[in-house]
Amino acid sequence: xxxxxxxxxxxxxxxxxxxxxxxxxxxxxxxxxxxxxxxxxxxxxxxxxxxxxxxxxxxxxxxxxxxxxxxxxxxxxxxxxxxxxxxxxxxxxxxxxxxxx
Length: 101
Prior knowledge:
5-stranded antiparallel beta sheet, mainly beta, about 0% helix, Jelly Rolls
């Protein structure tokens, strides 16, 4: 039997959308987490605040990512995760979702 995952948004706030991109803001205070979400498109992440973020996978396991404000990261489609801020500082990023042409 396959478990159905209830998925949410990739970030907290949708800031902009047109036919080519969606721009989201992710803001997580210490101890907060995002919805469980799937990266159905490719993303460019622009880190605005924070020192790290964890990605908790639905099947178990966590990946820890040190971050630096000003850092830009490409994330290919395909991952399913919940972002968790286990650091003592606020984490904030812009996520630019690249829609297929």
